[in-house]
Inverse folding.
């Protein structure tokens, strides 16, 4: 079987793994494009700290108030079709018992005969919003690296739940791929980043081999970029900073540049614990 197979579980979590809400929004696009049914939800009492991830209250169609608890749920397509199908795992990064959390979800994936897993993440990076969004695509699985032309990260240091889940999946015999979009740090903490979401979906389609509907996401991405252009035009310092980032990015993209540039930025992001630079220019991605 080539690649990730015919049943691919796409994973995204709110929280540390989700700068600019790019990863969770990508899963939202997938969920909105088809019909899915729940397969399994974890018990929130086991994995979440409610002082960190609080339950919320909402009104139902009849006007009744009800509590909604943090969750992590696996969804499967309501209809079986030919070709590659995408299962979804959506939820919040757990606060505790990560090994048990990963083991529980991998057990369900095995029961559903999942043939591959793709984790979606997004990170704050020193990149300009005016250039194509870079997506690091990597895996520890040698066969998948060769068949899909992916990379292997050399990073050592703290990780998020995506890495823990991927390691558990690989140990159980399910190949796992990670896709990480680089979101401009000067906007990642303030607004959703549809351009990064679009880049993740484009790369997911390549890796999973399944057609993905984008809806009006390309229009949203163009509007997002134009709105940042307009805001930067009124700030001379920000305009110059973006120009510096553009020059750096153009250097990366030149024929003479190293092919490891995106991987290096991904590793730098993880080393600083998922936090973006505290001010423009603090971290030069070429270091």
């Amino acid at each position: 079987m080539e690649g990730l197979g015919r049943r691919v579980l796409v994973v995204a979590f709110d929280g540390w793994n989700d700068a600019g809400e790019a990863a969770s929004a990508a899963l939202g696009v997938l969920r909105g494009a088809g019909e899915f049914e729940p397969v399994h939800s974890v018990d929130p009492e086991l994995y979440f700290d409610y002082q960190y991830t609080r339950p919320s209250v909402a009104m139902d169609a009849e006007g009744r108030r009800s509590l909604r608890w943090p969750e992590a749920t696996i969804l499967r397509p309501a209809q079986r079709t030919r070709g590659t199908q995408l299962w979804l795992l959506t939820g919040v990064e757990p606060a505790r018992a990560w090994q048990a959390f990963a083991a529980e979800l991998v057990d369900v994936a095995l029961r559903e005969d999942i043939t591959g897993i793709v984790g979606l993440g997004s990170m704050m990076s020193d990149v300009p919003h005016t250039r194509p969004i870079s997506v690091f695509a990597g895996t520890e699985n040698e066969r998948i690296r060769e068949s899909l032309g992916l990379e292997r990260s050399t990073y050592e240091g703290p990780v998020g739940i995506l890495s823990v889940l991927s390691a558990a999946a690989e140990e159980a015999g399910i190949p796992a791929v990670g896709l990480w979009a680089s979101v401009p740090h000067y906007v990642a903490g303030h607004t959703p980043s549809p351009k990064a979401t679009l880049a993740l979906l484009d790369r997911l389609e390549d890796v999973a081999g399944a057609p993905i509907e984008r809806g009006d996401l390309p229009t949203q991405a163009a509007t997002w970029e134009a709105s940042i252009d307009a805001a930067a035009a009124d700030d001379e310092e920000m305009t110059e900073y973006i120009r510096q980032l553009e020059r750096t990015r153009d250097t990366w993209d030149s024929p003479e540049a190293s092919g490891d540039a995106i991987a290096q930025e991904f590793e730098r992001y993880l080393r600083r614990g998922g936090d973006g630079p505290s001010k423009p220019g603090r971290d030069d991605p070429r270091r």
